Amino acid sequence: MGKRKKAAKKPQGPKKKEPLPTSFPCLFCNHEKSVTVKLEKKLGTGNLSCKVCGQSFQTGINYLSAAVDVYSDWIDACDAVAKEAGESTSRDADYGNRIVDVGPATRRGSDRDLQQRMINEAIDDDIDAEGEYADD
Question: Residue 15, class by beta-carbon neighbours within 10 Å (0-12 exposed, 13-18 middle, 19+ buried)?
Fold first, then answer.
């Protein structure tokens, strides 16, 4: 006696890949999905901008870059500025009047003032938060 033949399974199509997000939360105004990223691969630039607070950032990209790469570059640049500001505040007591540059971003006159105020507020918040959790 022979074995029974099993029913042949129909071939499944390729798994559908979920697309990577192109909108993210803003680091400065904390609005969800307010930051949009546009990639200009021919020019080799990635542009990031917040719809709510107007924060913008521009970085270089390559053919493998995705929107999440531009967003992570923005986060790294903001962290570097905050770290630099933290080091200089330990040396200088007058850190509120300093101009901090986030990086190569396209700016206009009033937008730059708004960005500067937001960066200084973020730095102040970080310093206040560190003081709350300091070991006594």
Answer: exposed
Sorted by sequence, the CB contacts under 8 Å of residue 61 that are 6+ apart come out as: 39, 41, 44, 45, 46, 69, 70
How confident is the model over 58-108, as pLDDT tens digits? 999 999 999 999 999 999 999 999 998 887 766 554 444 444 455 444 444
Structure token digits, residue 3: 């074995």
Backbone CA torsion sign across 88, 89, 90, 91: positive
Output the 3-class SS for the chain.
CCCCCCCCCCCCCCCCCCCCCCEECCCCCCCCCCEEEEEECCCCEEEEEECCCCCEEEEECCCCCCHHHHHHHHHHHHHHHHHHHHHHHHHCCCCCCCCCCCCCCCCCHHHHHHHHHHHHHHHHHHHHHHHHCCCC
Question: What's the pLDDT score for residue 43?
Answer: 94
